[in-house]
Automatic annotation (TrEMBL):
One Pfam family hit: ABC_tran
Native organism: Cellvibrio fibrivorans
Name recorded for this polypeptide: ABC transport system ATP-binding protein
Gene3D superfamilies on file: P-loop containing nucleotide triphosphate hydrolases
Domain ABC transporter: 16-242
PROSITE patterns reported in the protein's UniProt record: ABC_TRANSPORTER_2 (PS50893)
Amino acid sequence: MTALATQSQAAGELLVQLKGISKAYKKGKEQVNVLSKLDLDIRRGDFLALMGPSGSGKTTLLNLLGGLDKPSAGELIIGGQRLDQMSSSQLTKWRARHVGFIFQFYNLMPVLTAEKNVELPLLLTNLSSKQRKHHVAAALELVGLSNRAKHYPSELSGGQEQRVAIARALVSDPDLLLCDEPTGDLDRATADEILSLLQTLNQRQQKTIIMVTHDPRAADHARHILHMDKGALVNDGRVTDTGH
């Protein structure tokens, strides 16, 4: 599993810094402020749950952290790099190397097997076919699906599909795993399995995970919980320690 564990030695150092981050959109002639002057530090190896009502800005913040969008104001620094100063093409390259995304709906390609779905992010790299195969096998083993490598999504359960999606997010050994309601489409037992897997990846692989969730039971699997409301961090960004 060493192929997917290269970040662990740096656990504890500052990975993410938000300094006065704001985000606004134009809606007709009006400006809609979604995030307002956020300040937040996240250390490498943390597992942070973002909670708050719909419209509080959680997913917008996740999109900024993943380089899918840019802030309207403020500094966004991840791994020492200023994302707010990057061009769209620079963000695309940065995102491919440094971020893994896990969504509520697994976004698997139905015509591809599990291993081919996991391999997709590696097609943007310079890895050889043999190297890609090695990384894919390691990622599938990590999520407990080595025996399902040749199966198509239609042949997998919802929980297995989400495990494939997690393996795909892990396969390039990213600095950040960003999860948007990763268990929202699963039954409770399967959701608990996925959350336990994320917890294991955090604790054993020292993966830095930021998870948006409405579910307090899901949030309890994180190390810390941060609440948002109306585009701001509640309690000045102080986090709740879950004890993990």
